[in-house]
Amino acid sequence: LDSIDAWSLLIEDEARLAGIPADVQAAARAAAEEDGTPGWKLTLKMPCYLPVMQYAQDRSLREALYRGYGTVASEHGDGKFDNSPLIEELLALRAEEAGLLGLGTFAALRLQTRMARDAREVTVFLRDLAARAKPYAQRDLAELKAYATGELGLDDLQPWDVAYASERLRESRYAYSEDEVKQYFTEPRVLSGLFEVIETLFDVRLAETPVSSWHSDVRGVRVESPKGELIGYLYLDLYARSGKQSGAWVDSERTRRVVAGKVQTPIAYLTCNFSRPNGDKAAVLTHDDVITLFHETGHALHALLSEVDEPGAAAFASVEWDAIELPSQFMENFCWEWAVVQKLSAHVDTGEPLPRALYDRLVAARNYQSGMQTVRQIEFALFDMLMHDRAQGASVAEVLALLQEVRQEVAVLFPPAWHRLPHAFSHLFAGGYGAGYYSYKWAEVLSADAYEAFEEAAAKQAGNALGTLDPETGARFRREVLAVGGSRPAAESFAAFRGRAPRIDALLRHSGMTPT
Which of the following is catalytic: 167, 187, 296, 332? Predict the structure, then answer.
């Protein structure tokens, strides 16, 4: 975070900003003015970094930001921010901890409390998924290279060209851009629609309410039963700002518990890093931002709708880490439903909902480059598991060599030799996902299968305006998954909801990785 905050690039020639969305340019101009300097200040914060990588026509500008982000907190920058010694120290301490407990490796230690039984089961799962996904990833990359050469004149597609070329190909193939779509997802409308989805599925009521908070951006939401009984509070901190950790996450101030015979209601924090409102205009979110908001809301609901009175058995305390993403990834699916999108969209200027034709193109592009995205996640997960499935720590040189070996096995995109992914991989070293990054794909199998139950309910009620927003299935999901937290094994909770063990079929179908 210190390294990211310390990095900026001041642009004084407006021509270099060609292609970058107007709202991103306006934010960069405001950032420069805040520093008392002319021009436009670009940063590595996601609301700036991603649009530059996707839209900047200036190739050297994309390269500058890519190099900046790819060398964050490494020996290639300010030495006081270099995470190399910390990586080595953490890996050594984790190996030592596992040895002291007689478990051999840190992976073995972590998997004591997971659905997966051992590292081999995880690596077999990841390699099987990689074998299924890699042909689709190779097809995605071949199509991208052909388009970049034929239409953009990029004969030597570089890593800093990938996002830019991918967005141009998306626009060409599906006749829309992310910037066009985000004009319809204004933050107030998205929040209103999100609340309506939650209320329909889980029979609760949500309303913004004044709260004391750590920053003026923060808002409070009261969650209550239809009878007005307090269930809990949700704090929303949605905008990016200096000094704030990047990414999106949920944490809890307190969990549900019984104290002196009375129920102490939970309080959850939901944090994102979206673009701020632009003057008197509401903040606008990309569709990916909307998906992120739904994802984090799933985590929050796991805490807020718990009916477990013992804190040690609460969701965040004892649900197996490789199942903790089930509610969050499950919620993402609703962002693709027409009945839901109508509730979420209102154009920032006209208030009109997302047109059906534009929605159809958005859905058609849902699995755009899903093969490349899947193998990228497998690359992270396999690297993480192999790095922690060893009896001793490792030097940074060994860590980087291992990452290259994993890429040779599963990846289709290869960053430059100077790229330092591990140094900024806070999930593994500071976010609790060490020997657990595979959880995203593991839980995605669960979440896709769980959502299939809502698809089945919708199919039985063809023509129902609610589509997959089925209250009966939602009540069962709340009762069997959300309400029980970690009071029983996640496999039992899934079986109680679905009536069987999970299957990978729905994930492959949702990802477009099936023969049909």
Answer: 296
